[in-house]
Design a protein that fits this description.
The structure is a homodimer of 432-residue chains. By secondary structure, the first copy, chain A, is of the alpha/beta class. The first copy, chain A, has 14 helices and 15 strands. Helices cover 40% and strands 12% of the residues of chain A. In chain A, strand 5 and strand 6 form a beta hairpin. The relative contact order of chain A is 0.16.
Chain lengths: 432, 432
């Protein structure tokens, strides 16, 4: 039977929609990046836009062998329902791989680390809760938090990450009043969960290693200062570390979570060191909140694919990453250096600024005064190159001159051509 | 650095927890079934508790071939990030497989159909919204809806599913006042989303085929009556159909969604016809709300694993299910018949009632007057058999005499032994 065979009465015209959306649906928006990707995936466009890992780094052969072995030896379990916490040996591997003492019982396997952000939002954010993020910050985190209707505030940040003094000022907990946040937090515990703007933030979301979008990293002193300040004022930290293994010359300092495990949730991912198409990540959470994150996980998708978890555990055996990840680091370092060299050559004479990351996938560009990266994009695409305008990455007070360049999708050979095209677009737009 | 090296001041004792949970976290609870499974997975226990498909039905060889082919021929795409909507050929397969005209653009691939429930909850439920469910209903749906803080109400149901007259009465829209619901809905549009109890429900969640937990199905007349009534009063339907393909002798009538696609969201799953460990399901939604469901999906986990989607699309090619699913049907029919035969033999003389499903994975048992299935369970486990007490499946007014038996996990050979053990436990408890 077709819909128009449905009996309709004058009181229910066929065009009336019965659906009422939840208020939070207003906060949901299509990802600027994913929409852009559709635009820029046209043949002939060199894309510095998406954060797609180079498929040259995907361990296809190791995956083939692991799939075969898992299905042959353990197919009936690999294809069955499984525990929401994740596959035991994979949780143990994660715990052992981290540079602080982690009990595998605190590890939750997630469907990509994006799901970790969704679970954090569900368990920690009420409508109206304050949530703090870096300036700028990862767009996908803003998207994951938004449906739980927080008040998201950017924290002043510089090339070394979160500005800790500014953070304390923002919290009303400057040097002269170190206890005020904690006191305020205690005072608000019995209030309506729809917090007033002055209530204690539920957490600060921070990406200390080769941040998306800027590529910047936090040094050890800054990390220690942030963790100390957060502990002093009772501010939980949500630390996201998808890129930490992608260092060029030396590994980054210890994670924030290693400095205070009880005050931090840590998110990790297999997307950048194995492959994103497996959708596997993990979180490490303090024992006090792990059960609620687990229950949220169970309600969200029961468990992450048991097959994928076993295949990854199989691939990881025998120190595979010790051989594999250095090849990714070397490739991305070459690509980053090629992009930087091209920037130096092609942007000569233009007042364009950029940083030189020590790892990761991105660098951050600032256009000459008066220019707007969003307006530049169509012109750049005309010239055959794409990027992501920076404004998408700000919780508030976006800097319209900024843009993000990914150096992992395009090849070394494409860097010169792509950056030259970008420079031409900037020159044209600048003089227009 | 170890956590106890963290500088601590008198104002922040090491025991103070900085974490504040969202109000919705109070609504999250561990799944009774998943906790039970841990208890009942002891060796020697015959489990009628979990809804684990028989691993004998998992297409391990077809999976091995498909994994190999996908990785060899398409590994770089299969392991890369992908569109949130899902893999094109899989969406096309889903659209073509459904018995009404479905545009592939309306198909969203989900990380198991459980994720479909999570997305529905996020997009349609405000705090305080009324949501209607069958009596009893799928426990996982109650868990998925609860975090969005609805008022969940059970709708009177009988062996043929939702009682449509009772539904209309509950909505204040009996035969004499067919327009009142629609009018009330319009009147409440501008009100605070924390709805009053009399506001229009956001949807009715219904599982028409071989329902979990009862195994009951809705006949065509009942389906038509429900769809007509829902359309008349402007009540959206969320139709869940994980078991529809598992019929014994004849396929069930058309889905509710086929009778009114614009008024229904349809959820499907590959868990019962291929394997649950892949965590792949799908939803079909009207064009008016699809974009919001897609945005919620994107924020939740970016996309379902591209590798799994391609492997499943590869397995499904060339009519694989036409050969494979009949073997599942035949197996489950044999197992169901063995359980029913054992029930007739072993429950003789006891006032125990049960239904005889036409497909699916479950049947529903009612104990003699005065008995309580939750209290019976430890006794049953002592005797070496497990089930799920029915009370977990009710939104309200649970019937403590009910319990769910799964006939798909235990073998035909185990049915007699397991049901005999259950009968002994009932006799002991009954006379205790």
């Amino acid at each position: 039977m077709k819909p128009n065979d449905l009996p309709s009465s004058p009181s229910t015209p066929a065009t009336a929609s019965p659906w009422t959306l939840a208020r939070r649906a207003e906060r949901m928006n299509p990802s600027v990046i994913r929409e852009l990707l559709k635009l820029t995936e046209r043949p002939g466009i060199i894309s510095f836009a998406g954060g797609l890992p180079s498929p040259d780094t995907f361990p296809i052969e190791a995956m083939r062998e692991a799939c075969d072995r898992v299905l042959l030896e353990d197919g009936r379990s690999a294809l069955q329902y499984a525990a929401s916490e994740g596959y035991g040996p994979l949780r143990e591997w994660v715990a052992a791989s981290l540079p602080w003492a982690v009990d595998p019982a605190q590890v939750l396997i997630t469907t990509g680390s994006q799901q970790g952000l969704d679970l954090v939002a569900k368990v920690l954010i009420d409508s109206g809760s304050r949530v703090l993020v870096e300036t700028p910050t990862y767009l996908g985190a803003l998207q994951a938090f938004a449906p739980m209707e927080p008040q998201i505030e950017g924290v002043a940040s510089d090339t070394g990450g979160v500005d800790v003094d500014a953070l304390l000022q923002q919290l009303g907990a400057g040097d002269d009043q170190p206890e005020s946040m904690e006191r305020r937090r205690l005072l608000t515990l019995d209030l309506d969960p729809v917090s007033s703007p002055a209530a204690a933030p539920r957490f600060l979301y921070v990406l200390p290693n080769f941040q998306n979008p800027t590529g910047r990293s936090m040094g050890l002193a800054r990390r220690q200062a942030l963790v100390d300040a957060a502990a002093r004022v009772g501010l939980p930290l949500v630390e996201d570390n998808p890129y930490g293994d992608l260092w060029f010359d030396q590994p980054p300092p210890a994670p924030l979570t290693a400095l205070n495990p009880e005050g931090c949730i840590y998110l990790g991912s297999f997307s950048k060191i194995l492959a994103p198409g497996l959708r596997l990540g993990f979180m490490v959470a303090p024992a006090g909140i792990y059960p609620k994150l687990l229950q949220a996980k169970q309600a969200a998708d029961l468990h992450s694919p048991s097959f994928n978890q076993r295949v990854v555990a199989e691939v990881l055996k025998d120190g595979f990453l010790d051989r594999h990840v250095p090849t990714i680091r070397a490739l991305y370092k070459r690509q980053c250096q090629a992009m930087l060299a091209a920037l130096r050559t092609e942007m000569a004479g233009l007042d364009v600024q950029w940083n030189e990351p020590d790892g990761g996938m991105f660098l951050w560009v600032r256009l000459p005064e008066g220019m707007n990266a969003t307006e530049l994009l169509p012109k750049a695409v005309e010239h055959g190159v794409a990027f992501v305008p920076g404004s998408a990455f700000y919780a508030d007070h976006a800097d319209p001159r900024t843009l993000r360049l990914s150096f992992v999708t395009a090849t070394v050979e494409q860097m010169g051509v792509g950056i030259a095209a970008l420079a031409r677009a900037i020159r044209e737009q600048h003089t227009a």
